[in-house]
Write a structure and sequence with these properties.
224 residues; alpha/beta; 4-stranded parallel β-sheet; 4-stranded antiparallel β-sheet; globular
Length: 224
Amino acid sequence: SWRGATANKTALPIDVAGKQVVVIGGGDTGNDCIGTSVRQGAAGIVNLELMPKPPPSRAAHTPWPHWPSKFRSDYGHEEAAEMVNKGEDIRKYSVTTKEFVGDDSGNLKGVKIADLEWKHKDGRMQMSEVPDTERLLPADFVFLALGFLGPEQALAQQLGVEVDKGKFKAAFNKTPDDFRTSNPKVFAAGDCRRGQSLVVWGIAEGRGAARAVHKHIMSPVPQN
């Protein structure tokens, strides 16, 4: 087995062997969910994408030096197509998820979806549901790999933290105040402070914030 002899002695916390899997969202997280489902032996896998299918080559709206918008397949998509979908791409583009459907015992049995139409309006892309396209996909497991929109604004309000473009405002100046927010007892790091980025940044930011918190706690208390 792909897990190894030692690992096989313990039960998987989530085991999709022989099950119908739906992954909502693309990106690295969605791809890893797909790849892991293949390795566990899922009976079927579907990947739902909100956005339209990208063109096969660089899209006109992303000229160099912008990162090109074009169709890509990662290892998870390729393995799933070959091993569980008779060579066909498992992705469904321009669809919205409307409802999770369960049985009488509360077990997930399907996902209700509908097609979307995208149009340029007022300088931006806007979507609308296509009438009479609602349908049910069988699903025993659904994994959410959705895009990151930013930290919860209600939390910032509760903590009295200033925000900047949706992110918790914290210093980046390599000074003793780095990671500190407008609330001197609240520190921010990772996606919360810098926005959506790579996991290596999350690791580095977590370590940096930990050092800043430690220094703050260990600092001598001013005497009046």
